[in-house]
Design goal:
The chain has 235 residues and is of the alpha/beta class. It has a single domain, classed as 3-Layer(aba) Sandwich (Glutaconate Coenzyme A-transferase). Helices cover 20% and strands 26% of the residues. The strands form two sheets. Strands 1, 2, 3, 4, 5, 9, 10, 11 and 12 form a nine-stranded mixed beta sheet that branches. It is globular.
Length: 235
């Protein structure tokens, strides 16, 4: 089965529909599948629910879809860098389901592993626990969290082969591997595309069996979330 598609729009053709639950990789602005997000924006689908560690920033990442009001709900951990996100939430235009960061990662991992639910101490006794099943183990309170299985996963990989085997680089590895397995249909954008056998098997992080489609993005733009530089010392 051919997995490589000529562009992001082609890679998502026939997959997108209104009301989808989409899991999106990335950590801050690192490892975000922005080319695929732009294709979703251009497709015009709406009423989307996104599972993502964060909601990008104004003008980048999922922030692009907030601008067009295609997102109705975010399931996230950290959303502090996006003013438009805050405006839409406070005005009632956007729903939010906050998750502790580790809990969100585990919900995605569990979904990909076929685990419907698990218990965690994180959030017990707080607003996070409201409405959730609570049990006691070894004298400590735990709350039940459901695994996440999305309709579509979007990931960004540093390197991949034409069979869909993927390698992530540094911080981009934080959420992309869990997102890649936590859906019925995974599409990957890849910076360096190689032939099968050109990646050391020990370096593969996501196996190709999880990836349905690939788009090659050799010149993807890499944003800097907080630019910090030293003052130049004049001689």
């Amino acid at each position: 089965m051919k997995k490589v598609y000529p562009d992001a729009a082609a890679a998502l053709a026939g997959v997108l529909k209104d009301g989808m639950l989409i899991a999106c990789g990335g950590f801050g602005l690192c490892g975000v599948p922005e080319v695929l997000l732009m294709a979703i924006r251009d497709s015009g689908v709406k009423n989307l629910t996104f599972v993502s560690n964060n909601a990008g920033v104004d003008g980048a990442g999922i922030g692009l879809l907030l601008e067009t009001k295609q997102v109705k709900k975010m399931i996230s951990s950290y959303v502090g860098e996006n003013k438009l996100f805050a405006q839409q939430y406070l005005s009632g235009e956007l729903e939010i389901e906050f998750n502790p960061q580790g809990t969100l990662a585990e919900r995605l991992r569990a979904g990909g592993a076929g685990i419907p639910a698990f218990y965690t101490r994180t959030g017990a006794g707080t607003d996070i626990a409201k409405g959730k099943d609570e049990r006691e183990f070894d004298g400590e309170k735990y709350i039940m969290e459901r695994g996440i299985v999305a309709d579509l996963s979007l990931v960004h990989a540093w390197k991949g082969d034409t069979e869909g085997n993927l390698v992530y680089r540094k911080t981009a590895r934080n959420f992309n591997p869990m997102v890649a397995t936590a859906s019925k249909f995974t599409v990957a954008q890849v910076e360096h595309l190689v032939e099968p056998g050109q990646i050391d098997p020990d370096h593969i992080i996501t196996a190709g069996v999880f990836v349905k489609r690939i788009v090659h993005v050799p010149n993807v733009k890499k944003h800097i979330e907080q630019r910090t530089v030293r003052k130049r010392v004049m001689a």
